[in-house]
Amino acid sequence: MTLKKLDITSHEHEEKNKALLDAFNSLDVGEKMILINDYDPTPLLEEINNTQMINHIEWENVVDGPDQWQTTISKRYMSFI
User: Fold this and answer.
1) Which of 2, 43, 65, 75 is most buried, judged by most C-beta within 10 A?
2) Are 63 and 7 spatial neighbours (Cβ–Cβ below 8 Å)?
3) Dihedral (C-alpha) 35, 40, 43, 45: value to the nearest 10 degrees?
4) Could you give the C-alpha distances from 26 to 62, 65, 66, 74, in angstroms and in order?
5) Angle at the Cα of 23 (from 51 to 57), degrees rounded to 5?
6) Which residues contact 76 (CB under 8 A, 6 or more apart)?
7) What's the pLDDT tens digit per position in 24-69?
């Protein structure tokens, strides 16, 4: 399986959240992607994690700036048990 990549560095600030949410929603459970951004995406990822009811998002920064951040993102089922 090929790791999907989403580069949002050229997106306008207002478009980044929608692009990331759309890409996250297109992932199958257990699937990963890599996000490329020009600033720390943690606030965007936390917002998505807080709005998802069935699935949640897990992420790990692979490259921490200063000019570019690369973050692996995966979709997981939430466990209430």
Assistant:
1) 75
2) no
3) 20
4) 22, 26, 29, 11
5) 45
6) 29, 30, 55, 56, 57, 58
7) 889 888 899 999 999 999 988 888 777 765 557 889 999 998 999 9
Q: Which two three-digit tokens encode residue 13?
A: 């600030």
Q: What is the 3-state secondary structure (H, E, C) of 15-71?
A: HHHHHHHHHHHHCCCCCEEEEEECCCCHHHHHHHHHHCCCEEEEEEEEEECCCCEEE
According to DSSP, residue 73 is labeled: E
Say how far apart CA 20 and CA 62 lie, in whole Å.
Answer: 17
CB 53 within 8 A of CB 75: no
Identify whether the C-beta of residue 75 lies closer than 8 Å to the C-beta of residue 24: yes
pLDDT at 17: 87
